[in-house]
Design goal:
The chain is of the alpha/beta class and 551 residues long. Among the domains are: 27-41 and 52-187, Rossmann fold, CATH 3.40.50.980; 448-545, 2-Layer Sandwich (GMP Synthetase, Chain A, domain 3). The chain is built from 18 helices and 28 strands. The strands form 6 sheets. It has a 9-stranded mixed sheet, sandwiched between helices. Strands 9-6-4-5-10-11-21 form a 7-stranded mixed sheet, sandwiched between helices. Strand 12, helix 9 and strand 13 (258-261) form a beta-alpha-beta unit. Helix 1 (27-37) runs antiparallel to helix 2 (55-71), helix 8 (211-225) crosses helix 9 and helix 11 (287-294) crosses helix 13 (321-331).
C-alpha cells in the first residue's frame, strides 16, 4: 500500500502573458506613427490657458522643439532638465528630447536649493528648462545661487520668459531632415529619462529608464484600462513622476487618446471641472487626491457632471479600500484600476483588471503585468515564500531600470545578479496570483516580538465613521520595543477621538497588539509633492510630540 505524498505549498511566483506585444519603437517614432493615424483628434489640452493641440499639431510642435534642441547643440545622450509644474511645455520637452535622443532629467518642482544643485550636478544636466516661479520658489534666483557649482550646466531657459521663444527660434535654421537623421540612429534600449527617487535617507537616486522601459509600461497600463483614441485622460498627478509622464502621457499618446492637464498643481475643484468640461473618461490620482475630490461639497450638490468617467488609476501609495469604493460609487469610476510599482520599474508591475470583481479591485493591487515576472521572497534568505505568506516583492523583466545614474554600487544593492529588482515592499500573493501590499520592510513595526503591518490597521480604521484619513507609524517603547501611533484626520464636524474610543472600536476585531496606543488628531500629514505620506517624518514628529525617548 502506498501513501500519497502531501503536496508542497505553491510558491508565490507568477509570469505574465505575452499579449499584448510590447512596442519596440522609440518614443519619437511611436508618436509620429500614432499622429499619422489620428491627426485630427485632440492630443493635449491645457485647461488653465485654454490651449489645445490635435495630434498633427502636437507632432509638429514636437518637431519644432526638436529642431531647436539640435540648433542649440544638444546631442544624443546629453541631459536636459525639466523643472516645472504641469504645463504643455513640460509635455513638449518630454517628447522633443526623446525625438533627438537627449535624456530628460525630471526634477521635482518642490526642490529647494541644495536638492536642485545635487540633481543638476549628479545628472550632468547641460540644458535646464524651468518655470520662473512656483508658489514661493523663485527658480531664477535659486538657479543663480547654484550655477557655479554645476559645471556641466551651460544654459537655462525659462518657459514663461523670452528665453523660450528665443530657444525655439534657434531651430529655424535646422532642417527637419536633421531631426529625422538623428532619430534614425536611436535605439529603443537607449537611456531616455532620469527620475530621482525621493530617498528617505541620503541623497536621491537617479533611476535611469529607456524608451523600451517607459513606452512599454505606459502602453500596457493603458491597454489594461481598455483605452482607445476615444479616451480622454485627466492628469492632476505631477509629470515629473512616472505616474504622470509614463502611465499618463505615454499611455495616452501610444493609443491616440487625449492628455488633459487640469491645473499646474493639484487642485481638486479644477480637476473635477476639467473632467466635466472635457468629458474625460479616465482620471488618475493618488489616494489623497481622490479623498480631496470626494470631500468637495460641490460634488454632492451635482455641480460636476462626471458621467463620462469610467476608468483610471489610483496608485502611488496604498489605496484605502473605503476610498476606492467611494470613487466607484460617487464618481462613476466603475472600471477603476489599482496599480503597484516604483520608479525603478518604469513603474508598474501589477494592476487590477476591469473585469475583476469589486472585491479584487479594492482589496489587492492586482496581478502581474504582461511580459514581467514577480515573486515574493523571504527578506532574510531570498527564498520564494509560499502563497499567502508575507515577504519582499520582487520583479523582473523589460520594465526594470537600466540602473541608477552614475551609481553602480547602489544599483547592485537593489538589482540582483539574476536581474530581479528588490522593491523593499512587503506583500502577499493569493492562489489566483493577486498581490496585496502589507507595508514597507522599513515601516513594519515589531511590538513585543509580533510583526505588525500598519497598512492592515489603516484599512480597518478607515471604516470608522468619523475618520477621513489615517496613517499608522511605530515609535520606540521601553517595554514592547515599539508601540503604535495613529495619525487621524477627522471628517468635518466629527468630535475628537481618544485612544480609549479607538481601542473600544478595535476590541474584538483586531488582535490586542495591533491596537494603537497613541492617537494624534491632525489636520494634515507630512507629504511629498506626489502625495505620498512621509512616514519617517511622522515617526520623528510623533516622538517629539509624545515626548518619547528617541531610538
Amino acid at each position: 500500500m502506498t501513501t500519497a505524498r502531501p503536496q508542497r505549498p505553491r510558491q508565490a511566483y507568477r509570469r505574465g502573458g505575452t499579449e499584448p506585444a510590447l512596442p519596440r519603437e522609440t518614443i519619437g517614432a511611436n508618436l509620429a506613427r500614432v499622429a499619422s493615424e489620428h491627426p485630427h483628434r485632440d492630443a493635449l489640452v491645457e485647461c488653465a490657458t485654454g490651449r489645445r493641440w490635435t495630434y498633427a499639431q502636437f507632432d509638429a510642435a514636437v518637431d519644432e522643439f526638436a529642431r531647436a534642441l539640435v540648433g542649440a547643440g544638444i546631442l544624443a545622450g546629453d541631459r536636459v532638465g525639466i523643472w516645472s509644474p504641469n504645463c504643455a511645455e513640460w509635455v513638449l520637452t518630454q517628447y522633443a528630447t526623446a525625438r533627438v535622443g537627449a535624456i530628460l532629467v525630471s526634477l521635482n518642482p518642490a526642490y529647494r536649493v541644495h536638492e536642485i544643485e545635487y540633481a543638476l550636478t549628479q545628472s550632468g544636466t547641460r540644458l535646464l528648462v524651468a518655470a520662473s516661479r512656483v508658489k514661493t520658489s523663485d527658480y531664477p534666483a535659486m538657479v543663480a545661487e547654484v550655477r557655479d557649482a554645476c559645471p556641466e550646466l551651460e544654459r537655462v531657459v525659462h518657459i514663461d520668459a523670452p528665453d523660450w521663444p528665443d530657444l525655439l527660434s534657434e531651430g529655424s535654421t535646422v532642417a527637419l531632415a536633421a531631426v529625422r537623421e538623428r532619430a534614425a540612429t536611436l535605439s529603443p534600449d537607449d537611456a531616455i529619462n532620469i527620475e530621482y527617487t525621493s530617498g528617505t535617507t541620503g541623497y536621491p537616486k537617479g533611476a535611469t529608464l529607456s524608451h523600451h522601459n517607459i513606452l512599454g509600461n505606459g502602453f500596457q497600463v493603458a491597454e489594461i484600462q481598455g483605452w482607445t483614441e476615444l479616451d480622454r485622460v485627466c492628469l492632476p498627478v505631477p509629470f515629473y513622476h512616472c505616474f504622470g509622464m509614463v502611465m499618463g502621457n505615454l499611455g495616452a499618446t501610444s493609443h491616440g487618446a487625449a492628455i488633459v492637464i487640469p491645473a499646474p498643481l493639484f487642485d481638486p475643484a479644477a480637476t473635477l471641472r476639467a473632467v466635466h468640461a472635457e468629458r474625460c473618461t479616465a482620471l488618475y490620482g493618488v489616494p489623497t487626491m481622490f479623498i480631496a475630490e470626494l470631500a468637495l461639497p460641490e460634488l454632492d450638490e451635482g455641480e460636476y457632471d462626471l458621467s463620462s468617467l469610467r476608468t483610471g488609476v489610483m496608485a502611488g501609495s496604498p489605496c484605502p479600500v473605503e476610498v476606492m469604493k467611494r470613487a466607484i460609487d460617487r464618481m462613476g469610476l466603475t472600471e477603476m484600476t489599482i496599480c503597484y510599482g516604483m520608479t525603478e520599474t518604469s513603474p508598474v508591475s501589477t494592476q487590477t483588471r476591469r473585469e475583476d470583481s469589486v472585491e479584487r479591485r479594492v482589496g489587492t493591487v492586482g496581478r502581474v503585468h504582461p511580459h514581467l515576472e514577480i515573486k515574493i521572497v523571504d527578506p532574510a534568505t531570498g527564498d520564494t515564500v509560499a502563497e499567502g505568506a508575507a515577504g519582499e516583492f520582487c520583479t523582473r523583466g523589460y520594465s526594470v531600470m537600466l540602473g541608477y545614474w552614475r551609481d553602480p554600487a547602489r544599483t547592485t544593492e537593489v538589482i540582483d545578479s539574476a536581474g530581479w529588482m528588490h522593491t523593499g515592499d512587503l506583500a502577499t500573493m493569493d492562489a489566483d496570483g493577486y498581490v496585496s501590499i502589507v507595508g514597507r520592510i522599513k515601516d513594519m513595526v515589531i511590538r513585543g516580538g509580533e510583526n505588525v503591518y500598519p497598512r492592515e490597521i489603516e484599512e480597518f480604521l478607515y471604516a470608522h465613521p468619523d475618520i477621513e484619513d489615517i496613517q499608522v507609524v511605530g515609535v520606540p517603547d521601553d517595554h514592547y520595543g515599539e508601540e503604535l501611533v495613529a495619525w487621524i484626520k477627522l471628517r468635518p464636524g466629527a468630535a475628537d477621538l481618544t485612544p480609549t474610543e479607538i481601542r473600544d472600536f478595535c476590541t474584538g476585531r483586531l488582535a490586542h497588539y495591533k491596537i494603537p496606543r497613541y492617537v494624534m488628531i491632525v489636520d494634515s500629514f507630512p507629504m511629498t509633492v506626489t502625495g505620498k505620506v512621509r512616514k519617517i517624518e511622522m515617526r520623528q514628529q510623533s516622538i517629539t510630540h509624545l515626548a518619547l525617548p528617541p531610538t
